[in-house]
Amino acid sequence: MSIDEQFMLEAIKEAEKAREINEVPIGAVIVLNGQIIARGYNLRETAQKATAHAELLAIEEACEKLGTWRLEDTTLYVTLEPCPMCAGSIVLSRVKRVVYGATDPKGGCCGTLMNLLDDTRFNHQCEVVAGVMGEACGELLSTFFSQLRARKKAEKKLLKEQKKQEEC
Predict the structure, then answer these.
(1) Percent of the chain with pLDDT over 70
(2) From CA 43, how far away is CA 62, in angstroms rounded?
(3) How many Cβ atoms are within 10 Å of 95's Cβ, its own excluded?
(4) Domains of the chain: residue spans and CATH
(5) Per the annotation, does 110 bind a ligand?
(6) Out of 42-46, 74-78, 143-147, which region has the weakest mean confidence (pLDDT)?
(7) What pLDDT digit, counting tens, does each position of 58-104 carry?
């Protein structure tokens, strides 16, 4: 198992924490000199904050721990390709390298829809490694959304049955 796969497993553990509280299962870790210095998982629904993405929470924790906003020698591991907001934060915090699992065809800005991390118009670019444990990361997301759809369908059916009984 490669170093990237080992750290992606840690990001997957973070994603599983999100899944356990019915959040979209996305997890991230930030590594410096072979050590995890920050972790984060999606808390958007729990916190009701649009910015409570795994990457941003991990970036905030890393900055606090290091006492600087410059994360120049770090690697960010994340289970899903970062969105435009997260990609912007990655560039602005000067993360050196980003490793992600599953691609995001609806919002991925590290190579799928565009690559903000490699845009030479910015004063910082990041190395991007895509698809590390992509199948496992993608399966985590597709299982979550499949279960969510089934749960909503069951709730809708139950409400329909309750309404029918009230009419009788």
Answers:
(1) 99
(2) 17
(3) 25
(4) 3-167 (3.40.140.10)
(5) no
(6) 143-147
(7) 999 999 999 999 999 999 999 999 999 999 999 999 999 999 999 99
Structure token digits, residue 1: 């198992």
CA distance 156 to 159: 5
pTM: 0.90
Q: Is 109 annotated as a binding residue?
A: no
86 is in an annotated binding site: yes
The rounded distance, in Å, linking the Cα atoms of 162 and 154 is 12
Measured between alpha carbons, how far is 28 from 43 in angstroms, rounded to an integer? 12
Q: State which H helix or E strand residue 39 sits in.
A: strand 35-41
- Among residues 120, 117, 112, 125, the alpha carbon closest in space to that of 85 is found at 117
Other residues' Cβ atoms within 10 Å of the Cβ of residue 17? 17
**In the annotation, is 55 catalytic?**
yes
* Catalytic residue chosen out of the listed positions 5, 16, 45, 55: 55
C-alpha dihedral (94, 97, 102, 107), degrees to nearest 10: 30
